[in-house]
Automatic annotation (TrEMBL):
Biological classification of the source: Bacteria, Bacillati, Actinomycetota, Actinomycetes, Kitasatosporales
Annotated organism of origin: Streptomyces sp. R33
Domain (VOC): residue spans on this chain: 10-139
InterPro entries named in the record: Glyas_Bleomycin-R_OHBP_Dase, Glyas_Fos-R_dOase_dom, VOC_core
Top-level taxonomic group: Bacteria
Transmembrane segments: none
Record protein name field: VOC family protein
Length: 141
């Protein structure tokens, strides 16, 4: 018996859910600012796919606290991604706390998961139209 036979979650697919108080506003932000269009929709929800993964924006009466990263996107070139999004009006978070500081919206992060074969990561964070804190990361090899 394999570990996957004992744990059905080991074979589960992961899909992020992000709350939106105004789904139309969120749709416009994701389309006009991030360049992403939903691949499917249902009443109260929009489904997006990026490189074989997916996330959903759903109509919610609750607001995101925006105090932690709710979804992260791994990119090949974070400087190019940050530059392109800044041109589209995205404002990146600037962080200056002990051991962690962004410069021009990008942080150098020590260490990475050994299975990713990287020695570190570069990261950047911004908020969507609904206050969700989104991150981008680029492994440093």
């Amino acid at each position: 018996m394999s570990a996957d036979d004992r744990n059905p979650l080991a074979l589960a697919r992961v899909s992020t859910r992000l709350p939106a108080q105004d789904l139309d506003r969120a749709r416009r932000f994701y389309a006009e600012t991030l360049g992403l269009e939903p691949v499917d929709e249902r009443p109260g929800g929009l489904l997006y796919r990026c490189a074989g993964t997916e996330f959903v924006l759903f109509k919610s009466t609750g607001a995101s606290p925006g105090t932690f990263t709710q979804m992260a996107l791994e990119v090949d070139d974070i400087e190019a991604a940050v530059s392109a999004l800044k041109q589209r009006g995205v404002v990146f978070e600037e962080v200056d706390v002990p051991g962690f500081r962004t410069k021009d919206g990008i942080a150098e992060i020590e260490g990475n998961y050994p299975s990713k074969g990287a020695r570190g990561e570069r990261g950047a964070w911004f908020r969507d139209s609904e206050g969700n804190l989104l991150g981008m990361g680029e492994p440093v090899v």
